[in-house]
Amino acid sequence: MREYVLAINPGSTSTKVAVFKGKENLFETRLDHPLEELNQYKKITDQYLLRKNIILAWLQEIAIHSENLLAVVGRGGLLRPIPGGTYKITEEMIKDLKAGVQGEHASNLGGILAKAIADIEGIDAYIVDPVSVDEFEDVARVSGMPEIQRRSLGHALNIKAVGHSVAADLNKNFQEVNLIVAHLGGGISVAPVKLGRLVDYNNANEAGPFSPERAGDLPTGDLAKLCFSGEYTYNEIKEKLRGKGGLTAYLLTNNAIEVEKRIEEGDQRAKLIYDAMCYQIAKEIGAMATVLNGRIDAIVLTGGIAHSSYVTSNIAERVSFIAPVMIYAGEDEMKALNEGVLRVIRREENSKIYEEEVLTHDKKL
Ligand SMILES: Nc1ncnc2c1ncn2[C@@H]1O[C@H](COP(=O)(O)OP(=O)(O)OP(=O)(O)O)[C@@H](O)[C@H]1O
Ligand SMILES: CCCC(=O)O
């Protein structure tokens, strides 16, 4: 009997996998990939066969047979800009994931792996709320330089999933509330969520507050000088902006728990940098409050760093005058992927077709 949903969430060095029966999470694990293995491949998407075989071996280990799978869902990546929702994976989407139309990202593998495993049984494969969800109002796209448009890239999957939970806790529908959701992880996304739509974003890879691994907003003149100083290659600059920026650049760690330990031991520099990160997050939340004209049901702090009362109280002190601050620490992307599929299977929502949404969503300013 076909009754299980397999969820696949690829990260840079591991693939999280889970098997659900209805809402119940039966098995979940993180399959680690040693760097020596991954480094053999030039492009992230070239790792697909290696990861597929490891997932199939794991399914065998837990005695889940592919003929009992009902659907497979993967985390969607840097696709073309599309509205949020659950998408049936099509060949057109696979082409774009392989080409990396908005860049390389481990999540590009999510859809490719889901489709490859679903195809073994001829069942449906989906992605849910990919990184490239774009529900911007046009005014949010204008950057100040016509050659550059502001892009919507961020932690849409967790932000939307948490938004649904917050709305339910407020006894409302997601489409009835205005929220500012700050996802505080390795990257940081701050999003004004207007009646269920992500109408603006900082773009977690390139702007907004700095984060454990990313530099965030920078003074543009000084950045241009650094780029042309002759000291760095393009790839080195890219790494300084994303991967080796933020806390990692200042404190040589991306681990917020380690930073807090240093602060407790009296490290004043660690305190200054960490407080600056909280300050920038609060400032971004304040800016996003204007997007919602100040009509906000709640400010929501989520992601791994929202476990820290140091961070949440620091931010709350600055922003609680705007709206009540609610904390939903951690993330449950596996549950969010499964629920996206369940909404379609239970006909609470229609699945979308990527190429149709891209066509109707192509923005030229
Ligand atoms: N209890 C805690 N207190 C403070 N920081 C914490 C705690 N637990 C986790 N973190 C921090 O959260 C960060 C990782 O968050 P998270 O797991 O959401 O990120 P990720 O999944 O690696 O990246 P992303 O969220 O950008 O996809 C790390 O800096 C980690 O040290
Ligand atoms: C673009 C930000 C999303 C992520 O880092 O996972």
TrEMBL record:
Keywords: ATP-binding, Cytoplasm, Kinase, Nucleotide-binding, Transferase. One of its GO terms (biological process) is acetate metabolic process. Its EC number is 2.7.2.7. Signal peptide: none annotated. SUPFAM superfamilies: Actin-like ATPase domain (SSF53067). One of its GO terms (molecular function) is butyrate kinase activity. InterPro entries: Aliphatic_acid_kin_short-chain, Aliphatic_acid_kinase_CS, ATPase_NBD, Butyrate_kin. It catalyses: butanoate + ATP = butanoyl phosphate + ADP. This is Probable butyrate kinase.
